[in-house]
Amino acid sequence: MDAMKPVIILVRPQLGQNIGKAARAMYNFGLTEMRLVAPRDGWPNPDAGPSASGADVVLDNAQVFETLDEAVGDLHHVFATTVRPRDMEKPVVTPEQAAKSIHDNAAKNERSGFMFGPERSGLANDDILLADTVLTVPVNPEFGSLNLAQAVVLAAYEWSKLSDIVGISGIKEKDPAATKAALIGFFEQLEDALDKKRHFHPIQRRSAMVTSLRNMFQSAGFSSQQIQTLRGVIKSLSRPDNSFDK
Fold this sequence. Notes:
Low-confidence stretches: 166-171
Strand order of the largest sheet: 3-2-1-6-4-7-5
CATH superfamily of the largest domain: SPOUT methyltransferase, trefoil knot domain
Mean pLDDT: 87
Number of strands: 7
CATH class of the largest domain: Alpha Beta
Radius of gyration: 29 Å
Order of helices and strands: EHEHHEHEEHEHEHHHHH
Number of helices: 11
Structural class: alpha/beta
Shape: elongated
Number of domains: 2
CATH topology of the largest domain: Alpha/beta knot
């Protein structure tokens, strides 16, 4: 496991399905280290697997602790997630701000963790006392109801935006744009083929028609590979009809 990735700590989780959904949310964004503090129904929980939808690596490596003190003992910074205001003198940040802090902490070889409370009641004040910072999601003040997996998604997603996770780094890079020389060669080949087919008629309008065509293809933003493909198409269409019979 990557020691610089944030740990997800579920404090007194109640339902195995919710633990599984939290694992799924974690793995979607490249997080794999889950810690469970006094899970109500014990661990392992057979209800967690189906809800994880394939995020088995998270569940298989989940660590169980009897107390929150033990679960956060090796961490340098802990963020307590809550949607309710608390009368505590602690900094309050958004998930985006927390993610930035976690990356800054990792650059100093300091570990961080997100702490989530039980589904029904959330974190208790005694839990939050162990946190350095309170993480609050700016939700509708008339309906601040996020389930456990949703809260994990928000925290993990904001962290992943600043990270080189597989889902992002694995995207195929766009082919480089065609050079002007490649475009000019394409234009000349196209116009020569159209001349042979007497496309430009009347001839007095040839200049205006060529200008219109060049502007159209220029604005399309073709890549070098796409230009090569188009040139191959023109070459094929320019062959005599019986050229393939030889």
